[in-house]
Amino acid sequence: MTTLKERMDSLPPERRRKVEERARVLIAQEMSLQGVEPEVREPIYEFSHRDNEDKSAERQFDINKFRNLNAQTNQFDKQIDRLKQKGFKTDKIEATVNSALRNLSDPNPPPFIIYGEPQSGKTEMMICLTSKLLDEGHEFIVLLLNDSIDLLSQNLGRFQSSGLAPSPHNFSEILDPNHKIEGIKHVVFCKKNAKDLQKLIDKIDTLGKVIVIDDEADYATPNAKINQKHKTKINELIEKLLGARGMYIGVTATPARLDLNNTFGNVTAKWVEFRTHENYTGQDHFFPVDRNIQYQLNLLPEEGDAPSYIREALFSFLVANAFLNINEEKNNYSMLVHTSGKVDDHQKDKIEIEKTITALMDQDSPKYGAYVKDIWDKAKGRYPESNPDLLTDFVLRNISRHKLIVLNSKRDISVSGKDATDPKSLFTIVVGGNIVSRGVTLNNLLSMYFTRDVRHKIQQDTYIQRARMFGLRSDYLEHFELSIPRNLYNDWHRCFIYHKLSLDGARNGNPPIWITDKRVSAVAGSSIDRVNIYHTKRGELSFGLFTENLTDAIETSQDVNLEPHRKLQKIKRLLPETAFPEHLIRFIRNFSGPDDTGSDDIGRIAVYEPMEVSTFTPDPNRDDDIENISRSRGFWGQFDRDKDCSAIHHFKIFHYKNCRGKLFYKYDCDDIASLNFLWNVRGHG
């Protein structure tokens, strides 16, 4: 065989010189890319010959080069880069994922919750969390979703298109007996369905350490039979899936049910808040504490289901849609008609809308003139600086570009869900009830017509999830319209205020205190763990024991020269956060106006004479502890409200022999006389 040297020697001198020169240039370029300073002084064929020998050695097979390739990955960084390239700010996601990982780094990590507002981007956060868990070496991650094939397909598709490795799979894809589980990383999706969960458990029964990320964790997962000493099937199966070594992360917008149910013993001190991004519109926009409304709020009478009301809401949607398409970026927008959970009611809504749109497309209709006049008047009223003729003309020329979608069932979502969530028609109207109350994101939603039967209490977790108007609405918020009966809006507003105040406690490291009244309940009563949930008696609320500054606090409450709000401010400065939490001050500010002194720092309050409790008799049938100022019947009992008839916030220090004290609070107002508080005495770590 001819060697490289022999071949080079056989070349004519000029040809040999050119070959060597070209080789030197190529080698210099390659070495420069590798950061090596090229110094080729020897004949090129000798260098190449030795280089070939080195490469030959490199090409010897070594299996160790191909082991543990997936031990260390940077999938989380890739996911963050993917979102940044799409224009997303990722700081909130990164903070949430890092906090979750700190929880999981504990020697015995407790179950915990990640909570954030509805439609605030939790799916992208869960993709990033999953990628980080894979980077950390976790091998089997289960994503639990509601029992809906469409929602599973929607979320599974988003996970798969993100580029995660391994590619996420539906649980059914790994059930084959030949599919190996041990030693191979998996990301598996499963519905919260008893048959599906059991099949998954049978497949991975001996696997050991599993991480469960439970989307919409407050739905189906809590044990609704907790007070019957039994477990609901889904709760039992998820616990079985976790086994002795599994780790549980619940993700939800409404964590109250998980807390009050003590689901899997989750610890509120370990909860992680997924904060919203700057373009998100949520409760602060649609239910502002100060009632400073920045969108179109159309308050209906209590009989708000009259056909004329839904027709007026439809005309308003058509006009706003026309304005945006003429003056802003052209888009297809949708309107949600969310009236009840009854299929028959949805059919009535559909018929009324169809009749109205048909009349607008038929100039010979007896209703045509009246309806066009209504649209023209609506255009003139909503956009006085625009030409109502122009807006009305746009509506009538384009009304045929409409689509009416009824979502009553999972089948409806499967057939028309994409057109509902991403409108393909200029005027898209979605009619539905409970099926759109959770998990369905409606992009480009411009109007919501919301009426419900409000004769009974509304449940906070249910109604928070029904706020389908939350999400990416900031670009057109001033054009968004919510049509809703006045009393229902007031109940809904109070529901969100209660929710916000409860979570304020969790944000400050305190166990959340869930607020209820005669119109608003925190969660379904069957899910509340009655053994470990303390329920205030007649609105009486107390906080942590304190010993420091006890004498000063007592003297301050007795000081007749101080105005009530000044007394309370001074007491707040004297006591630790555990004895007088900041979120109570926030509650007072939100539920009262300025007091008689003109101060709007703290509203209408009364501070009462302190009371010594050593003479109180404990109930032998209760866990009363008078020395630590704990009594099942409470301490305040009937108090003299006439002392300050204008006050609605009442404070009193109870103390035991000047050794320790506890601050008690009562909210007493004619409009919400039944206000009460619930909190978990076990689940705060």
Characterization of the model:
The chain has 685 residues and is α/β, with parallel strands linked by helices. Helices cover 38% and strands 15% of the residues. The chain has 21 helices and 23 strands. The strands form five sheets. Strands 3-4-2-5-6-1-7 form a seven-stranded parallel beta sheet, with helices on both faces. The protein has a six-stranded parallel beta sheet with strand order 8-14-12-9-11-10, sandwiched between helices. Strands 18, 19, 20, 21 and 22 form a five-stranded mixed beta sheet that branches. Helix 18 (486-507) packs antiparallel against helix 21 (582-590). The protein is globular and about 115 Å long.
Keywords summarizing the entry:
21 helices, 685 residues, 23 strands, 6-stranded parallel β-sheet, 7-stranded parallel β-sheet, globular, single chain, alpha/beta
Q: Structural class of the secondary structure composition?
A: alpha/beta
Overall radius of gyration: 33 Å
Uncertain segments: 410-415, 593-601
Helix % is 25-40%
Task: Give me the number of helical elements.
Answer: 21
The side-by-side strand order for the widest beta sheet comes to: 3-4-2-5-6-1-7
Overall geometry comes to: globular
Total beta strands: 23
Strand proportion, as a percent range, falls in: 15-25%
Q: Mean pLDDT, rounded to whole units?
A: 84
Largest sheet: 7 strands, parallel
How many angstroms separate the termini?
Answer: 79 Å
